[in-house]
Write a structure and sequence with these properties.
Elements: H1 7-30, H2 41-62, H3 72-86, H4 89-108, H5 119-136, H6 145-159, H7 164-185, H8 187-192, H9 197-214, E1 249-256, H10 259-270, E2 273-281, E3 284-291, H11 294-304, E4 306-314, E5 326-334, H12 337-345, E6 348-352, H13 361-371, E7 373-379, H14 386-398, E8 402-405, H15 411-419, H16 427-439, E9 442-448, E10 453-455, E11 458-460, E12 465-469, E13 472-477, H17 480-492, E14 498-504, H18 509-522, E15 527-534, E16 540-544
Parallel strand pairs: 5-6, 5-7, 7-8, 14-15
Antiparallel strand pairs: 1-3, 1-4, 2-3, 9-12, 9-16, 10-11, 12-13, 14-16
Helix pairs in contact: 1-2, 1-3, 1-9, 2-3, 2-4, 3-4, 4-5, 4-9, 5-6, 5-7, 6-7, 6-9, 7-9, 10-11, 13-14, 15-16, 17-18
Amino acid sequence: MPQTLDAAAVRSWCSLALEALGREREEIDAINVYPVADGDTGTNLYLTVESAAQAVEAVFAAHETGSSEPAPADAVRAMAHGALIGARGNSGTILAQLLRGMAEVLADAAPADPGGAGGERLAPALRRAAGLAREAVAHPVEGTILSVASAAAEAAERSGSADAGVTVRAAYAGARAALAATPGQLPVLGRAGVVDAGGRGLLTVLGALLRSLTGETPAAFPMGRRRYEDPAAVEPAVGHCAPEGGPAFEVIYLLEADDRAVARLRTRLDGLGESLVVVGGDGLWNVHIHADDAGAAVEAGVEAGRPYRIRVTHFGAAAEEPPERVQRAVVAVVPGEGLAGVCAEAGATTVLARPGEPPASGELVEAIRRAHAREVVLLPNDAALRHTAAAAAEQARTEGVRVALIPTRAAVQGIAALAVHQPDRRFDEDVVAMTTAAGATRYAELAVAERQSWTTAGICQAGDVLGLIDGDVAVIGADLAATAEAVLSRMLAAGGELVTLVLGDEAPDALADRLESYVRDGHLAVDTVVYRGGRQSVPLLIGVE
């Protein structure tokens, strides 16, 4: 029976690609010499695929209570969207566009192929992917990931098979041959004796697709550099080193904007720098550029729409002498910009978790590295991030950092832990004190129901205000303030000394005034502190300690 790419195969593809890139990440980083020898292509591809895999897992999690798995179209769209919002670096951004191109064809064909896509769909999907990726790059260059993608599509089309496994096998072989040819197409690769790092990563992703469909493990592609008379030509790329005369910064951001604004943005950015890649569509884009004026690149995005998740990397930063590590640091995940400022003032390195966009383990590892400490206390501040944080902690430990993971389940527990943090005492004592403070803090959140459903407090209707205490719905109301008072009444019935209120953007200032008065009038010995959390997933967070 011909093999097809169904939802389960997409899930397996993501998992296998992430596993393979995890194994090969450092080797791909080491051969990264184009467009900038910044030694992070493998890492960027890993983080991009990790985001795609998380998005696919979220789709499957939403179907856990049902009897069927997600539709193939839902799985491929999730994979493409996850890659888009998590794309890192030049190659990661192009990979996101490749996945988007595949998703366009496979999702459109889904009604005709409810059991998954066969080879007759995969070949045009790969062709669309290669074409869309070239359109996204301002100045396409042969001998790169683009050449490898085009060769994969051409080989898939030549196979002419209805079997997805046969088609992908042909695509992989075509990509492998094209990758081997890249040193002869791009002089900088030939001089360094390496194949293109982005193309090498794409081959790994295609190999994972082949394995998910057929069970075959592709033969390893040789990663070593050739030997040259000039030893300098074969030194691995280490750190972010700007090429002589090249731009100083890499700028990446997500952008909410319409097509016309993005067309103008492309023109403006093309005059500001190099390696311009703009991918996405339907109002959401990922922008990548190397430029000397990072501020101008971001300002161009502001004029086009709403840029966020802005990352600016100085190519010379890692080449400088690294500062001495501090003894101890705290890394905290926060649900909004307001709390990020609060935690940063308390000395924490923060990772922003936007609504619907939880951070990947790679982002937590990056934050731990950025903290540049021998000892790190990690506060995930979300029960759903437990496994992600554990994976990040384990990775950091392999890099020689002593990491303690405190299983905080809400941002207010993280604030309580930070309040007692003392970096000058013994690590174990500090961790115990922070864990105790977090554990002594009950947490609640006020949310608005999106649909009718059963809860632990009864049936709620769409639009009802839900008061969740320690993760369970305890109160259902029609008014945000009244429901918050009911939640506070229940929480303070067991006692408390301090109430923490974190208001989201949509919560009015009058809400804080009303709740402060409610606590003051009914509980004279209880203090209240209020923070503005910014754009967060719920209008109100409450902590009682």
